[in-house]
């Protein structure tokens, strides 16, 4: 059964005249007659009682007419729902994020602006670790995830760089190096360090930087968030290698890291916007596409130096 057949049946039932029905439907009469005859064959019943002057609904036709109108109403509703989703007016936006995203991206503010513009879109946010968020993207549970690029498997995922920040060494306020500006990692290898858990991308990157410099360090504390890490540093338990952007507004001295070899450039901390790779020509979830555009607009308004600070 085709939707067009149902549409032509309803028009003919309302007009009770095939010629007028064909004119109203903008189709030749023979085409209308053929469509209705095919519909009758499929349903196994005559829908009209035909005469030389007019046509009337048969008993089967009268029974089918309200159902036909309901079919057309359901199709119209479905088309409207798809149109609204394509316009970003309805649907679901599922976001994944790491802890301590705030220094790099104000996700609550952006989502508040998105909800104001598209109040009928359901917003879901999941905070988690890199592996779990990556898997959720691959399984279609999340549309987007904001994570450090270091330490994330790219299998099945695409990523867009949003923000980068050089790594620096945070010191306790009373540390003997607090008045300096730069340091090599080799010169502080004897110090105790406060680090993130190995589950976090920042730890993966910091380990990579120490390996590049050929320096071994002693990790005295492994923590799960920036706030606690900085509290331990401030209390003198050790040094921490962190993205420079995380120190904004904090009263902790810090040192720029000088590579041991002058031609060397150490990797920076990078924040990426991840999503599952598109399959064929399938479009992305429209609310997600709109939110990505909002992210790009917001970052475009930032001073370039701030984005790379």
Structural overview:
The protein is an alpha/beta fold. It folds into 3 domains: 3-86, Arc Repressor Mutant, subunit A; 91-162 and 271-307, D-Maltodextrin-Binding Protein, domain 2 (3-Layer(aba) Sandwich); 167-257, Periplasmic binding protein-like II (D-Maltodextrin-Binding Protein, domain 2). Helix content is 41%, strand content 22%. The protein has helices at residues 3-15, 18-25, 29-43, 59-86, 107-117, 130-138, 201-213, 226-234, 286-301, 304-307; strands at residues 48-50, 55-57, 91-97, 121-127, 144-148, 157-165, 167-170, 182-183, 192-196, 218-223, 240-243, 254-257, 269-276. It starts with a helix and ends with a helix. The model is unreliable at 303-309 (pLDDT under 50).
State the shape.
rod-shaped
Predict the CATH topology of the largest domain. Answer: D-Maltodextrin-Binding Protein, domain 2
Number of H- or I-type helical stretches: 10
**Mean pLDDT value:** 87
The CATH class of the largest domain is Alpha Beta
Q: What strand line-up does the widest sheet have?
A: 4-3-5-13-6
> Could you tell me the number of beta strands?
13
Uncertain segments are: 303-309
């Amino acid at each position: 059964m085709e939707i067009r057949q149902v549409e032509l049946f309803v028009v003919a039932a309302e007009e009770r005249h095939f010629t007028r029905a064909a004119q109203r439907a903008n189709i030749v009469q023979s085409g209308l007659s053929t469509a209705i005859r095919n519909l009758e064959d499929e349903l196994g019943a005559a829908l009209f009682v035909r005469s030389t002057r007019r046509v009337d609904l048969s008993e089967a036709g009268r029974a089918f007419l309200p159902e036909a109108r309901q079919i057309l109403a359901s199709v119209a509703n479905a088309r409207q729902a798809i149109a609204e989703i394509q316009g970003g007016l309805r649907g679901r936006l599922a976001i994944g994020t790491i802890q301590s995203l705030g220094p790099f991206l104000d996700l609550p503010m952006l989502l508040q602006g998105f909800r104001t513009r598209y109040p009928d879109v359901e917003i879901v946010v999941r905070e988690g670790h890199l592996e779990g968020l990556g898997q959720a993207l691959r399984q279609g549970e999340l549309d987007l995830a904001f994570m450090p690029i270091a330490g994330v498997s790219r299998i099945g995922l695409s990523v867009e760089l949003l923000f980068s920040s050089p790594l620096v060494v945070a010191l306790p306020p009373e540390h003997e190096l607090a008045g300096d500006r730069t340091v090599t990692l080799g010169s502080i290898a004897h110090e105790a360090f406060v680090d993130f858990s190995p589950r976090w991308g920042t730890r993966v990157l910091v380990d990579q930087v120490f390996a590049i410099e050929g320096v071994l360090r002693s990790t005295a504390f492994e923590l799960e968030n920036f706030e606690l890490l900085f509290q331990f540093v401030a209390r003198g338990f050790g040094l921490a290698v962190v993205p420079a952007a995380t120190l904004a507004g904090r009263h902790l001295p810090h040192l720029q890291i000088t590579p041991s070899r002058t031609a060397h450039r150490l990797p920076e901390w990078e924040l990426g916007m991840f999503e599952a790779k598109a399959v064929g020509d399938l479009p992305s979830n429209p609310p997600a596409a709109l939110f990505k555009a909002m992210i790009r607009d917001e970052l475009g308004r930032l001073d370039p130096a701030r984005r790379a600070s």
